[in-house]
Amino acid sequence: MSHTVSVSPHPSPTASSTAPGPVPKAELHLHIEGTLEPAQAFAFAARNGITLPYADEAELTAAYAFEDLQSFLDLYYALMAVLRTERDFFELADAYLARAAEQGVRHAEIFFDPQAHTCRGVPIGTVIEGLSRALAAGEERHGISTRLILCFLRDQSAESALQTLEEARPYLDRITAVGLDSAEVGHPPSKFREVFAAAEALGLRKVAHAGEEGPPAYIVEALDVLGVERIDHGLRCVEDPALVERLVRERMPLTLCPLSNVRLRAVDTLADHPLPGMLRAGLMATVNSDDPAYFGGYAGENFDAVRDALALGEEELRTLARNSFLAAFLDDDEERRARYLAEVESHTFG
Ligand code: ADE
Ligand code: ZN
């Protein structure tokens, strides 16, 4: 039996679109500085005349054996020394968007840490101009819509956070929300009551890391004192049944980061991650990559890893993807949200 096969150098759009690709998703917990890949760090260092204290990429990667959040943050901040120019920030964000697009990310809400740059003499304008130029081109270059979230470092003072918000004022048209990150324990959300109130008065949305290493009480503070609309991580809510009940009732999104939790030892192994129970409890969980260059995977790898380690089925994966778009700051573009949600519902898992 013979078949006539037409061979073309490029697969036709119809042929490629019938192959089940990755589930469409939004990434809501991604530190752009955490996408700095070892090769990129060496390339940026070379062109900026900086010598890294590692002989090569292998030696740098060998340092990615973290014991906890602080041991990661020490390296994360040190490596940022290579980020100096607007071009560096543009290329960093553009490379992330290219990679995320391949893994089915349709919408990305991206954190950045201005204080980690201004403290090294890099002006906030250099950071924001570079990042926002890449993000603005994200749709055309990579088919990804974006939002930018300015994070305050919680191990710095409340005054420094207020000064950072002031420095960001000329650029607020590029910024959707404020967040709170860095070393959690000993730096409760209430320390940042004033700056979050000021951000709200400027029309910014609010999120905060809470319950990654810190106790469930920090999640409660983030909600009640800061008035956040999403909790970043929120992993330790499972220790407090009344809090879980509240988060379910309020449909509060949690931006979980499973591979990060393993690398920073919040859980022993991925098989121990509480995600399946969280979904069964009705929590509005999402899956994200946090700092993918350091933790072994981008959004797609996080989805694949939880699917495999926790035996998640298609409906659980679809729920995670649906939640990501429901929790996105797309209130100014509901048509787009509806389009993304329709894509999730019609997705065929391979
Ligand atoms: N900054 C970058 N990644 C972080 C994380 N996982 N927790 C707190 N701050 C961070
Ligand atoms: Zn984070």
UniProtKB/TrEMBL annotation:
Where in the sequence is the active site? E212
What name has this protein been given in UniProt? Adenine deaminase
A cellular component term, taken from the record's GO annotations = cytosol
**Entry similarity comment:** Belongs to the metallo-dependent hydrolases superfamily. Adenosine and AMP deaminases family. Adenine deaminase type 2 subfamily.
Q: Which reaction does it catalyse?
A: adenine + H2O + H(+) = hypoxanthine + NH4(+)
Which UniProt keywords are given for this protein, alphabetically ordered?
Hydrolase, Metal-binding, Nucleotide metabolism, Zinc
What residues does Zn(2+) bind to?
Answer: H29, H31, H209, D290
HAMAP family assigned: Adenine_deaminase
Which Gene Ontology BP annotations are present?
adenine catabolic process; hypoxanthine salvage; nucleotide metabolic process
Q: Which source organism?
A: Streptomyces cacaoi
Q: Which SUPFAM superfamilies match?
A: Metallo-dependent hydrolases
Summarize where substrate binds, as residue positions.
Answer: D291
In alphabetical order, the GO MF annotations are: adenine deaminase activity; zinc ion binding
Domain of life from the UniProt record: Bacteria
Which residue intervals define the domain Adenosine deaminase in the entry? 24-337
